[in-house]
Design a protein that fits this description.
The protein has a single domain, classed as Electron Transport, Fmn-binding Protein, Chain A (Pnp Oxidase, Chain A, Roll). 14% of the residues lie in helices and 51% in strands. A six-stranded antiparallel β-barrel has the order 2-3-4-7-6-5. It is elongated, with a radius of gyration of 17 Å. The chain starts with 7 loop residues before the first strand and ends with a strand. This is Pyridoxamine 5'-phosphate oxidase family protein. It comes from Actinomadura physcomitrii. Pfam families: Pyridox_ox_2.
Length: 141
Amino acid sequence: MASDSVHPVLEELDREECLRLIAPGGIGRIAFEDGEGPTMVPVNYAVDGESVVFRTSLEGRLNRSLLTAVPGGQVRTAFEVDAFEDGTHEGWSVLVRGGARPLEGEERERAVRVDPWPGGEREAWFCLTAREVSGRRLRRT
């Protein structure tokens, strides 16, 4: 039987702590509208200040959905990263909402490095600028 002194606590995380947690980069999920409804796919990412940089294939649904005909335009997206420990039932989750836009030319050359895990070309680079950042942590006390 679990001790009464050990109980789960769910705490809201501030923007600074959320950005610190996702700063190492890795794998997250990007949510977007693909014309058939809300969709979410995993991507490798890196953090640059308060922006998330990720790459995808030129032919993929993610690239087609995030391109805009308006120069400098952004597409509303959400990005989520989490980490959980099954054994302790502890972890955290961070949600970043904002506008994603393609990176081109010199801007792409200056962007933080993102190394995609999948094989093949990942020549479409995007930057999601954080408008909202929120998160929660579940811990035991």
